[in-house]
Hints:
Structural class: alpha+beta
Number of helices: 12
CATH class of the domain at 436-592: Alpha Beta
Strand content: 15-25%
CATH superfamily of the domain at 436-592: Histidine kinase-like ATPase, C-terminal domain
Strand order of the largest sheet: 12-14-15-17-16-18
CATH topology of the domain at 436-592: Heat Shock Protein 90
Shape: rod-shaped
Number of strands: 18
Amino acid sequence: MNLRQKLLLTIAGLVVLAVAAVTWTASIRTRRALEEIEQQRSAGLLAQVRGEFQRQGGGITATLDRMANDERVQRIAFNATHGGDTTVFLSEAATLAREYQLDFLELVNGDGTILSSAQAPARFGYHEQLTASPGPFLQAVEMRDGTTLGFVSQRAISVGSGSFYLVGGRKLDADFIRSLPLPDGMYVWFYASNQVQLDPSKMLTSTPVPIETFQDILSSALVSGNEVTRMVRISPQRFDHADVQAVPMKDQSGTVTAVLLVGASRRPALELLQHIRAIAYAVAGGGILLSIFTSLWVSGIFSRPIERLAAASRAVAGGDWNVRVENTSRDELGQLAEAFNAMTSELLEQRERLLQTERVAAWRELARRLAHELKNPLFPLQITVENLLRAHELPSAEFDEVFQESARTLLEEIAHLKAIIARFSDFSKMPQPQLEVVDVNALVERVAALHRSQMREEPQEITLELNLDPLQPKALLDPELMHRVISNLLLNALDAMPNGGMLKLATRSNAESIEIVVSDTGVGLTPEERERLFTPYYTSKHHGTGLGLAIVQSVVSDHHGSVSVNSEPERGTTFTIRIPRGVEPAAGTGVSA
């Protein structure tokens, strides 16, 4: 993932997180605020309904007070309490109810006997359960065609030492519910029954809703006798929900006789929350688009200069030390580009100085080694010539003998000089590899076979172990040059084991390269020796020119491969040659120690 993609994801993620956080906070606070408002509205409506109940009850009580002061009622009360004929009052309750606009009215004697009933004349002579509380209160009232719920109040009339009672009230029906002034979004329902088995005919409402909608909340209120609050879906429409509060209504004995349901619609809150979400989605979408353009803009300011720096760094790593980074700004990125250009310039200067130093050092080392190599045979030559000069004064027979011996010595040392010059000449003009497909296992076996006899002739026997790859790896290489490389490493291994040991030759292969491993159990190398091991003319042996491993490195590099060494003192040494599969010859080195 590049910097531009990271910037895009980061900015888009921050925008989405910010919008989500704001939306969540706004939704939570809005929901809470609306819930508080709805609770306040529900409480206000409930107080209003209760006030209307009290007003209705107060009106019934006032009506009974006026009726109690009526002269006819006073006469009926006097006759009933003084043993008069009460059958003459059978129709009086109905007449008074119509006159005073009451739905219920019963004239009751002091002992509770009903003298007249407007709503149920057949109750004449029945016993009425009188209460100590005058009312008003809810009560199930028996009618001609059944039972209905109503507001009932009780008024006592004192006549001498006796009492006479007026028990009257009005129906609690749908007209009463519809008469309530309801704010927009508020509902009132009244379940005029205390039966858990719901009866649709007992549901008094200003808004038609199937009674099954209230099954749960009504059952809970009727069973517990306490107020219950639930969220109720009052229609199939998406947002038509309401927070409904069920308030059990009790009669004068404390028995639940009905349930008042007050609801506040959640449609405004839900629609507002949906509107907030829609705005949030729109803002998030716009934010993502903005983040895309912002990331593109930012990448133009930051990522492109960084990409140019990265490309220039790769070019320097690949060997192009003349690369420069274009600087078009004066900020930190511009300073970085200037520092990079200054660094490459300094590297070029240091490289030239280093190359010059290496050339001088190489020529000095070459001159030193060549002088050292030539000095050894020159001394015998000088002594031989001096001997010849001195022998010139000797008799002819003795001179001939000295001449013959000196001539042999001169020829031997001249041959030695030619060999030294040939070795240095070979190193200076290493041939380019003539590549062909070679069986690496067979090549290693030929080298091992060539030196087996030498291993047996060593003072201490050396054991040879071959561990060749069973896949028979083949590589594109020069068999003669690689034969020389392996032979050189093998001879070095033999020199490192003067007391005998184990010499191992192995081949390994993978999809990218083929490895040739030469390992011994000899004296090993110190870290300092490993560092200088491939330096031309350096040798840790008492004999040799120090060119063997330099030639190994040169040949392997010409095959676009690498050679590495792993060694510790007294624990042996392992050389590993890695040759790529099917690579054209190329210049370069790849040596690690």
